[in-house]
Structures are given as C-alpha cells and as structure tokens.
Amino acid sequence: MMQNNPFKKNTAYYLTEPFVFRKRVEPFHLGSKGQAVLKTLKSAICGSDLQYYLGQKAKEKLKQRLPVIPLHEGVCLNLATGKRVVPVAGDLTQVPKEFKGRENIYPGLPYMGSTADGLARHYLTYPKELLVSVPDNVGDDLACLVEPLSIIFHSLNTVIPQHYHRIAIVGDGTMSYLLAMVLHSYYQLPKPLLTVYGIWDSKLAKFSEFANTINTDTQDVEGQADIIFEAVGGPEMQRTLDVCLKLCAPGSLIGIIGISDSRPSLAVSKLVNWGVTIKGLTRSTYFDYKQSLTYMADYKMQKYLQKFIHPRQFTINSATDLKEAFDFAVETHAPGRILISFPV
Fold first, then answer.
1. If pLDDT is split at 50, 70 and 90, which confidence band does 138 have?
2. Does the keyword Repeat apply (predicted)?
3. pTM of the full predicted structure?
4. Structurally, what CATH architecture does the domain formed by 9-145+308-341 represent?
C-alpha cells in the first residue's frame, strides 16, 4: 500500500435513492501501487445519470446499485504528475482474461456511476493504465466531452460507414450532435446523405450545418437509410425504435447508442424479411478515448464541440447544489451538456 496519506478525509456525494443525494465525509484510502490519486476538476451530467436520478432504471438495478457516487464524464488532475487526465469510465483492469481484446463488452464491467462509484467526489483512486492525458490546448470544459465522444468513435469504428451510405440519426441531444459532427468533419459525409430526426426545433437547429432535419412531432417520417443510429434511449425507446424501423431499407443496420431498461416491441417480420441488423454500440475502449482527444485537439473541431456545452454551470458544495444541477438538467430543453465542479 502507498504510505503518507495526506488527505485522510474525502467528500463524496451519493445518490441514495431516486431524487435524493447525500453528502458524506469519509476516510480516504490511497489504494494500491498501480493506482493514481485524482482530484475531480469538472464533470458532465449524462442521460444515464439522469435515468438513475429519476428512477427510470429497472427496480432490481436500483436496489442493487444504490447508493452510488454518480457521474462518469469528466476531467481530473493526477496529483502525482500535476497533469490533467480523463479516466476511462469502465475499469477494464477488472475483466477476465477470456474477454481480452473485448473488455468493453464484459457484462460485469465496473462502470463509473452505475456499477462502480463515479466522479462526484473530491478525490478518487484509479488505475494508472486507464488514464488518458489531456492536451494543453484542450480546456476542462471540452475534456468533459471525451467520454461521450469516445462512444461516437467506437460506434463509427464498429459500423464503418462509407461515403455513399444514407445515414439517419434518431435523437436531437448531445450524442446525436457529436455523431453528426464527426460524420461531417471526420468522415466527410455529404449533408444530403445525413438526416437527423428529433422533437425539439431549438436542438435540431444546431444540426443545420451537418444534416437535414425532421421534427417527428410535426413532420412525417419519410425516406430510407442504410445505417440508422438510435441515440435517445430511456423511456422514449419504444418511440425512437418505431422511427428507426420506419426508416429501414433492406439490409439496413440499426446501431443503438441510447440506454434503456424498457422492453420495446419490434416488428420482427420486417427485421427478418429485410435482413435488418441491430447492434449495441455504447461501451468504448481506451483506444476510442485516445482517438477522441486527438480529434479534440484540432482547433477546427473545438468550435463545433463548444456549441454543445451549456452556458450554465454549477459549483457543488452541498447535496442541495447537486440536486439543483440534476433538476436543471432534467427540466431544460436547451442543447448542451450541463457541467459541474467540486471545489475543495
């Protein structure tokens, strides 16, 4: 064990039940030699965090996993090196050898904010090999987008879209924006081949440079796509999958990025007769994190990414502060990740 613990106590925020946070001051343990001591600088509230907060996860999951320290998107300071790092949210070091090379899809993967404690605390220890260095020209705000951006790169590295593919994105939130942005700027997908389907005109307007847009509340769902990404999840999964199925062409692939514990019904005959493939794409790898930070270091890309950071940010000194931030994230329909910091 490491010696000379200078911290002794640590402040952490637990989600103890839906809608309820508790602030705890507890002993801080430095951990093993292979772990680094990190100070949380900033974090972002993800849709999956909100599902736990709102009690939208399956009852058995809530019973097993709460209380938990939430949040998995963020940037930390490595106190040993003085450098900023992004921790890979899934602890890939805890995966059995038989999953080597595909650690990210191990069913029992400890994942920050759900099956392992997350970033809503002043200090934490984490495996050194799962820390990705942040370039000097990438600020803390942008670094909070590395985890969701890594999921986008993982999704596209898995699906491998071609320049002639017709692509549809169902959803108008942060993940959809990042996906459209990478398809436009990295894959050079022409705008006529990309369509985004959502329900908020204010959010859809953000996509105008990259894609055509359709508001499914006011416009008919028309057209067909070779690749359809579902990027909403949660309680809306039935609705969004219905849109995905309407957009299917023979041989289409539906890539699911959204997370949900709901059990939507599907028109199986269409899936079978048309040879439609459904693939889960959520969990990313260490390589995807590194690729995301390389992409993010490009100043041209930063101007796009900056658009999806919400102007209102929160400083957390109490459980009430954290609840206010989560309530704001639930209620606001403005585009962009809500960022929070935990000053010592």
1. very high
2. no
3. 0.90
4. Alpha-Beta Complex (3.90)
